[in-house]
């Protein structure tokens, strides 16, 4: 009943920027916490960034700190991930997730809903 759809992935070169978006539909709420995770082939899913229900709390994994920014957008309960200075090691499928209690967390098991993922490939 709650659906998340990621968009904005693609193939870019090292140093370029991408902006990912996560749009919600169904019985969604603007009070959800939102997170971004990524997974490369044969590696475990990795936390990237999270934002709480009102945007006042954000978390980032150390490898993207200063390069990526998570933000809540006003239109259609959308959350964005701005990715700057991309590196080949950022290559992965990026997943959007929602947590119904509104509290941001770095742990994947804390999220209730997941999108299908969008591929980000960074070439050198």
SSE order, as H and E?
Answer: EEEEEEEEEEE
Shape: globular
Mean pLDDT: 94
Unreliable stretches covering 5 or more consecutive residues: none
Structural class, from secondary structure content?
mainly beta
State the distance separating the first and last CA atoms. Answer: 40 Å
Proportion of beta-strand residues? over 45%
Helix content: under 10%
> How many strand units?
11
What's the number of helices? Answer: 0
The Cα radius of gyration reads 13 Å
Question: Can you walk me through this structure?
Answer:
This protein is mainly beta. It is built from no helices and eleven strands. The chain has strands spanning 2-7, 10-13, 18-26, 33-39, 46-51, 58-60, 68-72, 79-83, 92-99, 113-114, 118-123. Strands 2, 4, 5, 6, 9, 10 and 11 form a seven-stranded mixed β-sheet that branches. A hairpin with a 6-residue loop joins β5 (46-51) and β6.
In short:
The protein has 124 residues and is mainly beta.
Notable features of this structure?
124 residues, 11 strands, mainly beta, four-stranded antiparallel β-sheet, 0% helix, seven-stranded mixed β-sheet
Q: How are the SSEs placed, and which strands pair?
A:
Layout: E1 2-7, E2 10-13, E3 18-26, E4 33-39, E5 46-51, E6 58-60, E7 68-72, E8 79-83, E9 92-99, E10 113-114, E11 118-123
